[in-house]
Design a protein that fits this description.
Length: 288
């Protein structure tokens, strides 16, 4: 599986006084099984980009290929693409509407033309993937917590068996516990199912912790596309793009200025903990 964008541009309200160039010369390839983070300041183009990947928007110019097929070709099925590239919008629980959880998750598979039995099987499988067992099947979606609603909404997309899962701010509005649970489930799913996941986020901590590849959008284009560690070395450029570096990265910089150098590439709490423990053992072992 691969998604490939070539010189892709998108202009909102083209030819009007409200014209806005939302994407500029985007060249991007996303391959099978990648866990990709997508960050950028508000208005940078990241949401517009994800809607192109799902073919909800069509480029003003440029090319888009899915598994080598031209998405904008005359015979390409955009409906089939949307089944393969699942997009979970921000606050997806606003789209829940059925009488119970299982029926809600069945909605997508039924729209694919699957039988009631097949749809229920897929729904149960998807709910299990997001950590929701049989005790949730008959509950009303509206009686669930924010995090549980978010899981049901994600399960509704997973039940369609997408090859790519795009999550637009999946933890928005959740408390820290709910945020961590959702992201842990997504990471587990990505690893076990070898699914391609694109995580759109405003949290530098989240992308530092979970993704393997980080794409930074700025002024409608791609500023960086590298590993999180490599991207966060560009502190000055990130600040110019109105983005921060992870708190642990900033803490390591401050400690270094104080003469305590634990390493410049530490970007997560787990890495900071390991570095501190290592330093403590080194000093303890030398009797200091």
């Amino acid at each position: 599986m691969s998604l490939e964008l070539k010189n892709l541009n998108y202009i909102y309200n083209e030819g009007t006084p409200m014209e806005s160039h939302a994407l500029k010369d985007i060249n991007l390839t996303i391959r099978d099984g990648e866990f990709v983070g997508l960050i950028g300041h508000t208005g940078s183009g990241k949401s517009t980009l994800t809607q192109h990947l799902n073919a909800l928007l069509e480029a003003t110019s440029g090319e888009y290929y899915y598994n080598g097929e031209n998405v904008y070709g005359e015979n390409f099925s955009k409906k089939e693409l949307r089944r393969k590239v699942g997009l979970v919008f921000q606050y997806p629980e606003h789209q829940l509407f059925e009488v119970d959880v299982l029926t809600d998750v069945c909605f997508g598979p039924k729209n694919l033309g699957l039988s009631e039995e097949e749809a229920r099987s897929r729904a149960k499988e998807a709910l299990k993937m997001v950590g929701m067992g049989e005790n949730y099947y008959e509950k009303s979606p509206f009686d669930l917590s924010g995090g549980e609603k978010r899981r049901v909404a994600i399960a509704g997309v997973l039940a369609m068996h997408p090859e790519v899962l795009i999550l637009d701010e999946p933890t928005a509005g959740l408390d820290p516990k709910g945020r961590d649970e959702i992201l842990d489930e997504i990471a587990k799913l990505q690893k076990e199912q070898h699914m391609t996941v694109i995580l759109v986020s405003h949290s530098m901590e989240d992308v530092a912790t979970y993704v393997d590849r980080l794409i930074v959008m700025y002024q409608s284009g791609i500023l960086f596309d590298d590993t999180p560690k490599a991207v966060f070395r560009h502190r000055k450029e990130m600040e110019e793009a109105h983005l921060a570096v992870p708190q642990m990265s900033e803490l390591m910089r401050m400690l270094k200025e104080k003469g305590i150098d634990l390493g410049e590439d530490i970007i997560t709490v787990a890495e900071a903990k390991d570095a501190i423990m290592k330093r403590w053992k080194e000093k303890n072992g030398s009797g200091r």
